[in-house]
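Dear Dr. H.,

I hope your travels went smoothly. While you were away I took the liberty of generating a structure for the chain from your last submission, since the lab meeting agenda had it listed for discussion. I wanted you to have the full record in hand beforehand rather than looking at slides cold. The sequence, exactly as received, is reproduced here:
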Amino acid sequence: MEYQPEIKLQEKLSELLMESDSSGAEVAREIGVSPASISQYRKGETQPSLDKLVVLHEHSM
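The corresponding predicted structure, in token form, is as follows:
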């Protein structure tokens, strides 16, 4: 993946959910957060912890 610092987490997470067959609830379960947390990440209201970012990255591969 090419380094693109201007891309925001909420944009990447929305892309991940659109490109995969996973729902927000499924991704939440896989990374160990609530579906509400996924919604907050997508809206830019909160940021996931570093360990959750790593799991999200692994999920997107």
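Two observations you may find useful: Helices lie at 9-19, 24-31, 35-43, 50-60. The CA atoms of residues 19 and 40 lie 19 Å apart.

With kind regards,
E. W.
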